[in-house]
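Researcher: Before we compare anything, I want clean individual predictions. No alignment, no superposition, just each chain on its own. First chain goes here; please echo the sequence and then give the structure tokens.
Model: Echoing the first chain and its structure:
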Amino acid sequence: MAGHSKWANIKRQKAVVDAKRGKTFTQLSRAIIVAARGGVPDPALNFQLRTAIDKAKAASIPNDNIERAIAKGAGTFGGENSSLEAIRYEGYGPGGVAILIEALTDNRNRTAADLRAAFSKNGGNLGETGCVSWMFDQKGVCVLEKVVDEEQLLEASLEGGAESYEMTEDEAAEVLTEIANLEILSQTLKDKGFKVTDAELRWIPSNNVEVIDPDQARSLLKLIDTLEGLDDVQNVTSNFEMAENLMALSIV
């Protein structure tokens, strides 16, 4: 998980560049559509939808766009997004690193072709379903900011049914729990005064691959960057570990 957490920190430094591509708007709008379709189109009664809306607002997506995405998911708006479906793809990156890709697409063939091209151009291979997913467990993750008392965090995490937590950097923390317990944990942490900036489902690797070769590191980071740059891709998760100086190769 350390490698993934460090990669998440690197990605935050690139958020401004990603937002300029308009990709954030596309990703978050699609997440709202799928959340609204998968449950009640009322954020008060749908935790996944409420979380997606909170992320959209944090990214300064206009309320009109949010309402439109909810309507599309509920089937009361129509349009080109009505056929979006969630699909998980799996593959290997340079050095045998396992990669999981979560996508929302209205055209499976297009998405698979785009992913296959991204892998092949950057030293990886798009695999069959199940080839790497056995190395990951899906968990609920609450991301916190401004954690000044770790003992208080431990007590609140235990009360909320958490499995573990990890302090990251700049007084930030990530608290893990079972998927079905995510909403309870999030609310418990908020009730205890913690600032929960995100509550999401995440694939956590059960084993990690250390990447030490600079060329492999550069190719791997470029592959992940390319995958995340595809419009249909929502999330990319991998099981690599890498020194900070190699990680910095991705910052351009």
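Researcher: Okay. Second chain, same rules.
Model: Second chain and its structure:
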Amino acid sequence: MFDKLFYQDKGLFLQSFHPAAVLAYLFVLLLLSLLYDNPIYLLSLLLLLVLLIKGVDGMEAWEGFFKAGVFLMLVVMIVNPLVIRAGATIIWHGPVLPFLGRLDISMEAVYFGAVSGLRLLVIMSIFCLYNLMVNPDNMLNLFSGAAGKSVLLVALATRMFPTMVRDLKRIKEVLQFRGVDFDEGGLWERVKKYSGLYNVMLLSSLEDSMEIAESMQARAYGSGRRSVYSRNLLRPRDYLSIGGSLLALSAATWGLLNGCGRYSFYPVADVLISDSSTPAALVVVLFYLSVPLILSEGWKYCRFIKSKI
């Protein structure tokens, strides 16, 4: 189950972008999810993210993020009306509480909580897409020339959790083949069985650390200034993706300066579409953000595009 949350090379087109292009694209998505307040804009970003996640065959992994996001959305919808009393449309007059006054719940506070939860779901989906789309080794190698030691530390730290999960699963299967039933017996017996499992995993981790140290020594790590070699080259698809990201950011900036994407919840919620410029600005931003999806479809069905990018 945990393996689906980490990067797996499936040979998909969306996984073939340069890490710098992916980082720029996801940064624009994250920035827009923080700047936009209009629920229609946030829903559109979420739909785009779902299509991208589907393009990297990650719907099963995103399901966990979706459930966690919906749960947090419900929590925010419950807590926010109890804290914020700025709405004008009161839907429930509660009792008078000490030091807090009358507990009135407004429609605007519930609405704001729902949109805040939606924003949180969009942000979680962005990080889910990052895990599925970017090889962490390639991303860390992108910064290895400027901060080699820091990148090594981050690489070892990020590698630790998926490696431990894989080793734990492997060791548990070996013990089960030897007749150890982890679901049999009382609580104390099961604790003893799992303690033996974690002891084996601890020894395995120590052996792995020794192997990493020997590998670093064999590569003369720390003996002098390190050299940097990378096979990740910027290709036309990367330039098109970066260009689409910059154009989307420019269009979004123009729209925000002209009120497109802004939204006010208090004291009375605004209308979702105030004029024709609101959906027009959204369509332009989504078009530029859809460049990776357009290239992905062209890669599948058009030989000319496939030969050029």
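Researcher: What stands out in the second chain?
Model: The radius of gyration is 25 Å. Additionally, The chain has two domains: 2-6+17-134+233-308, 140-218.
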